[in-house]
Amino acid sequence: MSGDGVPEAAGQGTAPGTAPAPGAGGAGVGEGAPRRSVGSRIVGRLGSGAVQVVLVLLALFWLVPTLGLFIASLRSPQDNAAAGWWTALASPSQITLENYANLLDNEAFTGSFWNTILITVPATVIIVVIAALAAYAFAWLEFPGRDWLFLGVVGLLVVPLQVALVPIAQIYGALGIFGNIVSVVLFHVGFGLPFAIFLLRNFFAAIPRDLLEAARMDGGKEFTIFRRVILPLGGPAIASLAIFQFLWVWNDLLVALVFADQTSQPMTRALQSEMRQFGANIDVISAGAFLSMIVPLIVFFAFQRYFVQGVMAGAVK
After folding, report:
1. What would the pLDDT profile of 56-111 be if each residue is shown by its tens digit?
2. Greatest CA span in the chain, whole angstroms?
3. Which coarse location class describes where this protein primarily resides (predicted)?
4. How far apart are CA 23 and CA 16, in angstroms?
5. Among residues 284, 294, 286, which one has the least CA distance to residue 251?
6. Rounded to an integer, what distance in angstroms lies between the CA atom of residue 115 and that of residue 101?
7. Which of the listed CATH numbers 3.40.50.620, 1.10.260.40, 1.10.3720.10, 3.90.1150.10 matches domain 104-313?
8. Would you call 20 helix, strand, or coil by DSSP?
9. Phi then psi dihedrals of residue 179, to 5 deg
10. In 3D, which of 129, 141, 145 has the Cα closest to residue 209?
């Protein structure tokens, strides 16, 4: 207290109008912005021009094997045996379509190509349809044992594919379908459904409940709600699932080796057989490998917009 009996103001010694030092009374007054973490600074610098140039160079480097495969598929066996594929860049006269003409005349490869389509398309469509219906039921329908059934679906995600090869092969043998296209499709459907249901159920559950309640109040039945509300809103997630499933089945080799015979083998098994029998037949192998690779790329880029929307929507939700 001062000599005239007037109490001294808090923060004595600080001139009027001067902000208190950091850490004094009135915490936070005059403090600067919090320091950014190392991770946030690294993320902030990823948008710089130098980093983008480095990423472009890495992408081009990653595409070098694909370019080499494509050029090798356009060269004659003699040119491939004489020098590396990069020599065709300086000598375009080496480029020819003879390898692809011979490949299309090969009944084994053309048959395996159509077998791949007959396996991949049904396996993708069946999984998408069943998974979408099951995911809607698990997300928005009330029925006894729903949560336990969904836990069972989640538990199937950890079952390795390899442990079921022998038992299912025995079942297929007893049913008389071992070695044909149906057996391969059923195997892919059985092991693809758990992940598909889990993925779509989580996406459908994030749809606002008010939309479904409004549709029910308007007299909409469950299938009508599924068709007119769930499918339009869940289109990006369904497209992402379809792309993933198509790529997995198209590039599969293990299931084809076990369950497909010579008449129903897909391209992956045909290429593996070609490499085993004619290891130096690079013209046939390169052309077939590039043909088997270009179809998934076309499918991916055709549905890239929906794929990105599904990934972003899942990240936001």
Report:
1. 888 888 888 888 888 888 888 888 778 888 888 888 888 888 888 888 888 888 88
2. 112
3. membrane
4. 18
5. 294
6. 20
7. 1.10.3720.10
8. coil
9. 95, -5
10. 141
